Amino acid sequence: MAKSITLLGSTGSIGTQSLDVARMHGYEIFGLAANSRVELLLEQIAEFHPRYVAVVNPDACDRLDAALAGTAGAPRLLRGAEGLRELAAMEGPDVVLNAVVGIAGLPASLAAIESGHDLALANKESLVTGGHLVTDAVKKHGVHLLPVDSEHSAIFQCLQDQHSAKRLEKILLTASGGPFFGMTTGELRGKTKQDALRHPNWNMGAKITIDSATLMNKGLELIEAVWLFGLPEDKIQIVVQRESIIHSAVQFADHSVIAQMGVPDMRIPIQYALTWPDRLESPVPELDFAALHKLSFDVADEETFRCLAAAKKAIRKGGLGPCAANGANEEAVRLFLQDRIGFLDIGRLVEGVVDSDSFGGDYTLQDVYACDRMAREYVRAHI
Ligand code: NAD
Ligand code: MG
């Protein structure tokens, strides 16, 4: 069980909820890292007294430096993307929790693992872009990779019985369907970022909220599940579970299905990643079956939600296919949030990149960065 944590992405949705869990159980915060929200970082520093703070954005780093000048016991400041990596690698914490958004989280994941740290991973883009680098490093350094994503935490929880886990036959990856579930392509055409940012069940960062509306999030999670649990893509079935009560399930050789349930609150999977293999009390309310009324199930519409189809194509292609899909998606979501492309353009652009090459074969970290750049350039050239 973790006692001391380095938390990367502390100012985000997962980051702040991780600090709720840390506060509740009195965990020590060894290091904090974020991109730019200086005011919030200052509050977090005042409360948790980390020894190190990494700030990626240079202006924000200067502002934090100035604000902390002369403060007794102020943390040592680490600068930029290199500072983030340095912090991830630093000896001291029991676990590194990576809640950075996007491929920016990959070098920090690798640095943490290569320094022998257990990694609690919310940053699914680490596995999507560099799946074999991350999983090879985990094996080589003998560390634990603890999923924070609610679906993957659910699957991980369902696989705690080692005997049964050997006879895992299929994963049932649940999806809320997002705010646009059941809509046709025609209905999706005029959707704005305000429409897409209204998620029915979860309150998350902007990027993953858009990913939930396009179903790219489920595509990324399917790829994440392939790397975490070692099943091929065709053994992972996406099941729409509108209420977000069943967080995912596994099916064994005897066709027995085990699911993990709970109210939709990320503090449960965050906490489990920090307390595994133990469980502790939680401020999250219990699931009230009397009030629940019903659980509904449906299938995901890949014909309409092209991001999901493209993500599946990408993992089937293998190699850098998922990295290309991810890079295209990050760039397209950025442009959509700036009102520069329409909602349906996201799927068109992600699919366009995936269809543009065969992507197979082994890769290095440099290849990952080059592929990510290529995918972003493709998107900018095709808007
Ligand atoms: P967010 O946008 O709320 O927070 C992102 C954090 O990353 C912030 O602290 C920000 O400062 C930091 N950051 C942004 N760019 C950075 C950069 N270039 N370098 C270093 N740090 C940077 O995002 P979130 O919703 O908390 O999601 C974080 C990760 O967790 C994502 O990978 C997301 O897919 C995953 N996740 C989130 C949820 C959720 O409920 N929010 C659930 C499952 C998985
Ligand atoms: Mg999830």
Can you give a write-up of this model?
With 383 residues, this protein is α/β, with parallel strands linked by helices. It contains 18 helices and eleven strands. The protein has helices at residues 13-25, 38-48, 58-68, 80-89, 106-114, 124-141, 150-158, 162-165, 185-188, 193-196, 206-214, 216-229, 267-275, 289-292, 306-317, 321-337, 343-355, 365-381; strands at residues 4-8, 28-34, 52-55, 76-79, 95-98, 118-121, 145-147, 168-175, 236-240, 246-252, 257-261. β1, α1 (13-25) and β2 form a beta-alpha-beta unit. It is globular, with a radius of gyration of 20 Å. Magnesium ion (MG) binds at residues 149-151, 221. The site of nicotinamide-adenine-dinucleotide has 27 residues, from α1, α6 and α11.
Please count the helical segments. 18
Briefly note the structural class of the backbone: alpha/beta
Radius of gyration, CA atoms, in whole angstroms: 20 Å
Mean pLDDT: 97
Task: Give the neighbour order of strands across the main sheet.
Answer: 4-3-2-1-5-6-7
Estimate what percentage of residues fall within beta strands. Answer: 5-15%
Distance between the termini: 48 Å
Structure summary, number of beta strands = 11
- In the predicted model, the low-confidence regions spanning at least 5 consecutive residues are none
